[in-house]
Design brief:
Blueprint: H1 4-11, E1 31-34, E2 39-42, E3 45-46, H2 47-53, H3 56-65, H4 71-83, H5 89-94, H6 104-118, H7 128-154, H8 167-176, H9 187-200, H10 207-216, H11 222-233, H12 241-254, H13 259-267, H14 288-303, H15 309-322, H16 325-329, H17 337-347, H18 354-374
Antiparallel strand pairs: 1-2, 2-3
The protein binds acetyl coenzyme *A (ACO).
Length: 402
């Protein structure tokens, strides 16, 4: 019964924009998206070129510092990141307290939040030196934390990082290796995971990035802000979608693989039934990342000799949806999450680790956006307004008279 139009008129110059569909909260020079044309660029470089010619650490440097590094700059950066991969032994013990079946996302965000207790100098986010060292620590330690979260969930011993390996290789080693057995990381897996991290590295003001900026706008430090971003990413409408896609595909497979029946349930808007991995707030065209991921899924599954019936179901679903009026009219296309889960699964990751992998990829973007926010000359604490729709003034009623 609330007349929102009247409320807006009464409140004066306040806009009501649920979901911030048309409201920019900042200006940014990091990532450009043209959702109608399906274009994504980091610092002006197209995602296609970066996917083909760059790598995750170089892209991290580009996002955070604004330019592609020279060879010396990249070597120095790589060396610094590789030197900080160890976790404090006390932080390592932190993992023992979680239940064995804990979802690794809250474990990840808790451990990142706990970094503030080990590096208390980081509590002053206005000190550029602290911001710099926190940046390096996060990039170096998040893969170690993620691998420990995995090891905890399968009851295996933690493996210390071995800094003779690159970041992604080290992560795979710590995740799938065992102390008693030599573990040779397949270079094809390293390359594929590195590429997926590049594709996830930034996506301008999405839900988790906006969270990182908003928390940081109160001058909370980088660790606290990134921890909040990880929690925002956890939801199935955002980063949790990669897990939800695989669960959807498994459900369809279990029911006999009938894509038509499932699509009809989506179109009938059955409660809780969505075509997960489809649709995007900004892309009203094919998500350029999804196009690259689709090719990679084919390649990786082929190389690993994996013949996953779920890939077939995914391709049929896509074909079916893209030729259906419901999806065409609403401009719903596959997003980055539609095919990533199939690759992660083929690599051996359990479904619950998928969103953790998204977080590892998105980290440099969160850091770059936080740093841009803290250095913004027109920085202000984020504090949205509201349209109040509750009671006007009421007289208090004593408890025995209610
Ligand atoms: N399946 C079925 N219908 C959909 C889907 C979908 N995946 N996505 C949107 N729609 C429909 C909506 O029901 C709505 O229809 P209506 O006009 O008849 O009411 C219309 O398309 C517009 O959708 P909105 O929900 O208004 O779009 P919004 O921009 O708010 O949401 C979102 C975008 C959250 C991504 C949505 O498309 C969705 O829930 N997708 C599935 C989850 C997903 O894949 N998330 C990952 C996003 S990408 C990322 O974070 C990496």
């Amino acid at each position: 019964g609330v007349d929102v139009k009247k409320l807006l008129a009464d409140t004066g110059l306040v806009t009501l924009d649920p979901g911030f569909v048309n409201t920019a909260a900042c200006s940014s020079a990091i990532t450009y998206i043209d959702g109608d044309a399906g274009i994504l660029r980091y610092r002006g470089y197209s995602i296609e070129q970066l996917a083909e010619r760059s790598n995750f650490l170089e892209v991290s440097y580009l996002l955070i510092y604004g330019e592609l590094p020279t060879k010396t700059e990249l070597d120095e950066f790589t060396e610094k990141v590789q030197r900080h991969t160890l976790l404090h032994e006390d932080l390592k013990r932190f993992f023992d307290g979680f239940p064995r079946d804990a979802h690794p996302m809250p474990v990840l965000s808790s451990a990142v939040s706990a970094l503030s207790t080990f590096y208390q100098d980081s509590l002053n986010p206005l000190d550029p030196e602290q911001v710099e060292i926190s940046t390096i620590r996060l990039l170096a330690k998040l893969p170690t934390i993620a691998a420990y979260a995995y090891k905890k969930s399968v009851g295996q011993p933690f493996l210390y990082p071995d800094n003779s390996h690159g970041l992604v290789e080290n992560f795979l080693r710590m995740t799938f290796g065992l102390p008693a057995e030599p573990y040779d990381v397949d270079p094809a897996l390293v390359k594929a995971l590195d590429l997926l991290f590049v594709l996830h590295a930034d996506h301008e003001q999405n839900c988790s990035t906006s969270t990182v900026r908003l928390v940081g706008s109160s001058e909370a430090n980088l660790f606290a802000s990134i921890s909040a971003g990880i929690n925002a990413l956890f939801g199935p409408l955002h980063g949790g979608a990669n897990q939800a896609v695989l669960e959807m595909l498994e459900g369809i497979h279990k029911d006999g693989g009938d894509v038509d029946t499932f699509v009809n349930r989506v179109k009938n808007k059955e409660a809780g039934v969505k075509l997960m991995g489809f649709g995007h707030r900004v892309y009203k065209n094919y998500d350029p990342r999804a196009a690259i991921v689709k090719r990679t899924a084919d390649e990786v599954l082929g190389k690993l000799g994996v013949n996953d019936p779920l890939l077939d179901i995914a391709m049929k679903l896509e074909e079916r949806a893209l030729s259906d009026d419901y999806f065409v009219q609403r401009k719903l296309y596959p997003n980055v999450d539609f095919y990533t889960g199939l690759i992660y699964k083929a690599m051996g990751f359990p479904t619950r680790m998928f969103t953790v992998l998204f977080a590892l990829g998105r980290l440099p973007g969160w850091i770059a956006q936080w740093r841009e926010m803290i250095n913004d000359p027109v920085r202000k604490i984020g504090r949205p307004r509201q349209l109040y729709t509750g009671y006007t003034e009421r007289e208090f009623v004593a408890i025995d008279e209610r």
